[in-house]
Amino acid sequence: MSRTARREQVRANLATARTRIAGACATVGRDPAEITIVAITKTFPTSDVALLAELGITQVGENRDQEARVKAQECGGLGLTWHFVGQLQRNKAGSVARYADVVQSVDRGALIGALDRGAGAAGRRLGICVQVDLSEAGADTGGGPDLGPEAGRTLHRGGARPDGVLALADLVAGAEHLDLLGVMAVAPLGADPQPAFDRLAAVHDRVLLGHPQARMRSAGMSGDLEAAVAAGATHVRLGSALLGHREPLK
Ligand SMILES: *Cc1c(COP(=O)(O)O)cnc(C)c1O
Question: Residue 137 — pLDDT band, cuts 50, 70, 90?
Answer without folding.
Answer: low
